[in-house]
Known about the structure:
- The chain folds into two domains: 3-119, 3-Layer(aba) Sandwich (Rossmann fold), CATH 3.40.50.2300; 136-231, Arc Repressor Mutant, subunit A (Orthogonal Bundle).
- 37% of the residues lie in helices and 21% in strands.
- It has helices spanning 11-23, 34-41, 62-71, 87-95, 108-119, 162-173, 181-189, 199-211, and strands at 3-7, 27-31, 50-54, 78-82, 100-103, 136-139, 142-145, 150-153, 156-159, 179-180, 221-224, 228-231.
- β4, α4 (87-95) and β5 (100-103) form a beta-alpha-beta unit.
- It is globular and about 50 Å long.
Amino acid sequence: MSRILVVEDEAHIAEGLQYNLEAEGHHVEVVGDGRSATERLAEGERPLDLVLLDVMLPEMSGFEVARRARAAGNYVPILILTAKDEAEDVVRGLEEGADDYLVKPFELEELLARVRVLLRRRRWDKVAPGEDAPRSEAFGDVSVHFDRFELETPRGTVQLTTREAALLRALIDREGDAVTRGELLEQVWRLKADTRTRVVDSFVSRLRKYIEKDPSRPRHIVSVRGHGYRFVR
């Protein structure tokens, strides 16, 4: 049974989400403000499998909740819910570490589908029916296990978020090619290629800290000036 935290200050929306998610077989907790959400995310005894996080919250915004969780090393999947269909809100949520987003009002089936995707971490968007995704890759002194969303390094094991893993896979799949930021935005974040954001660079910086011996002089995820990035095994 998956444990899901719903962070929503509108009681009727929170109750509806809880009812439908529990009907899907999940254990659901509900909090109504950002500070309570941050405190719950800081608990280590009862790890969460997914967070549904409203952006507009009392005491602390959903953006800040996501930022603090990631800064603390908590990479539980986060689905942000925003009432505005504006690119800057979506982009900011993703830049703070959210894995996906939905704009209110949304259809219940769409939300449940997004939840299933985020919980079903062993599946990959681009795998054809009957085809298995690459389960693991090794390069340098690093091994990445896509089926477990884990990265093994000499410094220990890192649990990757869905977007971190998807970005690394996108680069590995095109090993040796210079991949543009726009291509990565479309493939990994489903944003338009011309969206003004530093989210790709931010996530690349995070991956480099995991896999590079010296992140300031990367050997595996190499910058291509004015273009994007190239993966070198």
